[in-house]
Each structure stands twice: as C-alpha cells, then as structure tokens.
C-alpha cells in the first residue's frame, strides 16, 4: 500500500533457518503494527510500536519471534529457527497524524 | 479527558521575525511531548522530543520549552525563513500501555512572507 513498503515480497526458507522481514514506512507514521495471516484465515496481531517503543508484544507466538524499530521508522520482524507452521503472509500496518491505517503489501513466507 | 490544544491555528509573519507556537495538554500520565514540522505534501519531521524532566531543548533555530506543572509547551522559531512555512504539530505520549496513548494537536499553520 502507498506509504509503506515491505521486503522481501516472497521468502522461501528451509526449516531451522532464521529470517528477517522488513517494514519501511514513510515519514510520519508513528504507530507500526505487525500481523500475520495464514491462508484462508483472518489477520493475527503480533506486536506494535509507537515510535521506537514496543507497546504490546502479546501476540508474538513464542520466543522465536521478535521485532524491533530502533529509530522509530523501519521495523524488522525476526523469526529464528523457522518451522513449517510459521508459513504465512506477514503484513505491517502503519498509522499516525492525518494518515489513515495503511497496510503494506506483505511478505509471503514459506518454510520448507 | 486527554487532549492537546495548539494555538494559534494559523500565523503569518515577516521573514526574519521570531514567533512562538503554543501547545497545551491535559494528557496524563505524561510521558513525552514532540514537536513536528510538516511541509505541504510531505511527511512530518520530528523537531524535538521532551520528557518530563526537560525544560528546554533546541534544534537549530527551533527551541522548545516544557512546563510539566502547567502542562504547556512552546516552540520558538528564531529569525524565521521562508522555508519555515509549514504546519507545526504537537504530539503528546501518555504513560499508558494501550494502543491509544498518543494524542495529536491539530497544528499551527505558519506562513512566512518576504
């Protein structure tokens, strides 16, 4: 979506490898949210930041998942020791000021 | 009720003059206050961030003050330039853990004329 880009668009990784997913919002998006969506299911909230502060990480499935946003702009979602059940579309959403709630186009992660 | 009010809504000044923008808030508990400059068609750019213990902070020709007792902040612009023409927005963060802990002012539209 306009205003936020995610990379990579697609990621195929072997089970056990670590992956890092990136969300890059344009200036002014104060709040940044991470979601994941398995095929055929609704989005599942993972975590969110206001500026650089992680406000809520209760949605992270386990300690293999972590996220950071060190300078309050770009955020990275890291999954360590990936498992097949981690396969999903990972999307970030941003909001702030007079910008509406905007989703990125997502990263399709496939763990084989 | 948590609110952030800015004044004036708009301001026109001559190039080279100084001006002061005001931000009053009722947000509690207070965490920090940020001033942003937003040029037309561009994203907001952070000018200063002030926490409870900070009274004043400068960024070039911009000086922000904070009085946590009266819950007032000001942004003083010295020797204004044409490029200072923009909207200036005050954002207050509350010490809350929920999603709605950011409170935005409606901004002051500053126009600097030659």
Task: Tell me about this structure.
The complex is a heterodimer of chains A (112) and B (114). Chain A is mostly beta strands. Helices cover 0% and strands 54% of the residues of chain A. Chain A contains no helices and 11 strands. In chain A, the strands form 2 sheets. In chain A, strands 2, 4, 5, 6, 9, 10 and 11 form a 7-stranded mixed β-sheet that branches. In chain A, strands 1-3-8-7 form a 4-stranded antiparallel β-sheet, with no helix packed on it. Chain A is globular. The termini of chain A are far apart. By secondary structure, chain B is an all-beta fold. Helices cover 0% and strands 58% of the residues of chain B. Chain B has no helices and 11 strands. Chain B has strands at residues 4-7, 10-14, 19-25, 30-38, 45-51, 56-59, 62-67, 72-77, 86-94, 102-104, 108-113. In chain B, strands 2, 4, 5, 9, 10 and 11 form a 6-stranded mixed β-sheet that branches. The relative contact order of chain B is 0.34. The interface between A and B is medium-sized, with 13 and 15 residues.
Number of helices of chain B: 0
H/E series of chain B, N to C?
Answer: EEEEEEEEEEE
Largest sheet of chain B: 6 strands, mixed
Q: Helical amount among residues of chain B, as a percent range? A: under 10%
Number of helices of chain A: 0
Please state the overall shape of chain A, judged from the principal axes of the Cα atoms.
Answer: globular
User: Sheet bearing the most strands of chain A, described?
Assistant: 7 strands, mixed
The structural class of chain B is mainly beta
Low-confidence stretches of chain B: none
Series of H and E elements of chain A? EEEEEEEEEEE
């Amino acid at each position: 979506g306009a205003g936020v880009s995610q990379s990579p668009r697609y990621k195929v990784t072997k089970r056990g490898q670590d992956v890092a997913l990136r969300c890059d919002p344009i200036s002014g998006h104060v709040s940044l949210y991470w979601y994941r969506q398995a095929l055929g299911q609704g989005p599942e909230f993972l975590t969110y930041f206001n500026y650089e502060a992680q406000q809520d990480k209760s949605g992270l499935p386990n300690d293999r998942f972590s996220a950071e946003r060190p300078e309050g702009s770009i955020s990275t979602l890291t999954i360590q020791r990936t498992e097949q059940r981690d396969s999903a579309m990972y999307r970030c959403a941003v909001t702030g000021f007079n910008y509406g709630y905007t989703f990125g186009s997502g990263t399709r992660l496939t763990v084989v | 009720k948590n609110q952030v009010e800015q004044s004036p809504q708009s301001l026109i000044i001559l190039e080279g003059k100084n001006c002061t923008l005001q931000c009053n808030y009722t947000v509690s508990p207070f965490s920090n206050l940020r001033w942003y400059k937003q040029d037309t068609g561009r994203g907001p750019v952070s000018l200063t961030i002030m926490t409870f213990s900070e009274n004043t902070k400068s960024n070039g020709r911009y000086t922000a003050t904070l009085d946590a007792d009266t819950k007032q902040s000001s942004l003083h612009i010295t020797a204004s330039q044409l490029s200072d023409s923009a909207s200036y927005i005050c954002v207050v963060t509350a010490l809350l853990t929920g999603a709605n802990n950011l409170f935005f002012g409606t901004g002051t539209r500053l126009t600097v004329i030659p």
